[in-house]
TrEMBL record, chain A:
<dbReference type="InterPro" id="IPR036563">
    <property type="entry name" value="MoaE_sf"/>
</dbReference>
<dbReference type="GO" id="GO:0006777">
    <property type="term" value="P:Mo-molybdopterin cofactor biosynthetic process"/>
</dbReference>
<dbReference type="InterPro" id="IPR003448">
    <property type="entry name" value="Mopterin_biosynth_MoaE"/>
</dbReference>
<dbReference type="Pfam" id="PF02391">
    <property type="entry name" value="MoaE"/>
</dbReference>
<protein>
    <submittedName>
        <fullName>Molybdenum cofactor biosynthesis protein MoaE</fullName>
    </submittedName>
</protein>
TrEMBL record, chain B:
<dbReference type="InterPro" id="IPR016155">
    <property type="entry name" value="Mopterin_synth/thiamin_S_b"/>
</dbReference>
<comment type="similarity">
    <text>Belongs to the MoaD family.</text>
</comment>
<dbReference type="Pfam" id="PF02597">
    <property type="entry name" value="ThiS"/>
</dbReference>
<dbReference type="InterPro" id="IPR003749">
    <property type="entry name" value="ThiS/MoaD-like"/>
</dbReference>
<keyword id="KW-0547">Nucleotide-binding</keyword>
<dbReference type="InterPro" id="IPR044672">
    <property type="entry name" value="MOCS2A"/>
</dbReference>
<dbReference type="GO" id="GO:0006777">
    <property type="term" value="P:Mo-molybdopterin cofactor biosynthetic process"/>
</dbReference>
<dbReference type="GO" id="GO:0000166">
    <property type="term" value="F:nucleotide binding"/>
</dbReference>
<dbReference type="InterPro" id="IPR010038">
    <property type="entry name" value="MoaD_arc-typ"/>
</dbReference>
Length: 153, 82
């Protein structure tokens, strides 16, 4: 799926919002979306494109997604997180298409009354997302490219 | 019955198409669908060993799962989001 033809996909419930987008992630807007008067903590995770992997210089990454299923998988991860921790609001944004070094590919924000819940839930959400959500990245080097595979987290 | 088979990442590149329409016999299962796919792309048999399956946007493991017309099956290679 080419970024140019990708239409933003959103799944929104009363307290959670999931987005798959093909443009830069607005981190301030994401943090604002999990603000809650009862929350004393907001945890933010950003996954960014780095300039090296396994000893090779990386030029950029290209992300591809099965958007309809990715939204459902992330929703199911958020439901599990809500069963384990008491959380206020959750926002998850994954970007697709070509992403340059230093830019965020994924952002997760979680708010809760106290910090422990949102920190643990954020950790769980990113680990589970990497293991099961149908999103793929292709790494581009000076001399080639390769589809990657997440290992054990 | 007519079903849609979606491919992604390396499988999309190797098939040259992100979406394949398959005509399957009545009583077809996921296994029937995979066999029909491999008839078109026999060189991808190895790739399928590392591929998970989804039916209508949900992971399924049981190859005997029955299909119905207009189902959407997806071949999910090892994921690498995040």
């Amino acid at each position: 799926m080419q970024a140019s033809e990708f239409v933003k996909q959103t799944l929104k419930t009363e307290r959670d919002e999931i987005e798959i987008i093909a443009s830069a992630i607005d981190i301030s807007a994401l943090l604002a979306s999990v603000a809650d008067p009862e929350a004393g903590a907001s945890s933010l995770f950003l996954g960014s494109v780095r300039n090296h992997n396994q000893g090779k210089g990386v030029l950029y990454l290209e992300y591809e997604c099965y958007p309809e299923m990715a939204l459902l998988e992330i929703q199911s991860i958020l439901q599990t997180a809500r069963e384990r921790w008491s959380l206020k609001r959750i926002g998850v944004i994954h970007r697709v298409g070509r992403i340059e070094i230093g830019e965020a590919a994924v952002a997760i924000a979680v708010s809760s009354v106290h910090r422990q819940e949102s920190i643990e839930a954020m950790h769980f959400i990113i680990d589970t997302l990497k293991a099961s959500v149908p999103i793929w990245k292709k790494e581009y080097w000076q001399d080639g490219s390769m589809w990657l595979e997440n290992c054990c987290g | 019955m007519k079903i849609t088979l979606k491919t992604f990442a390396q499988l999309r590149e190797k098939t040259g198409r992100g979406q394949i329409e398959l005509e399957l016999p009545e009583q077809a299962t996921l296994e029937t669908c995979l066999k029909a796919f491999l008839q078109q792309f026999p060189e991808l048999e190895q790739d399928l060993k590392h591929t998970r399956l989804a039916l209508n946007q949900r992971y399924v493991r049981d190859l005997t799962t029955p299909l119905k017309t207009n189902d959407e099956v997806a071949l999910i290679p090892p994921v690498s989001g995040g």
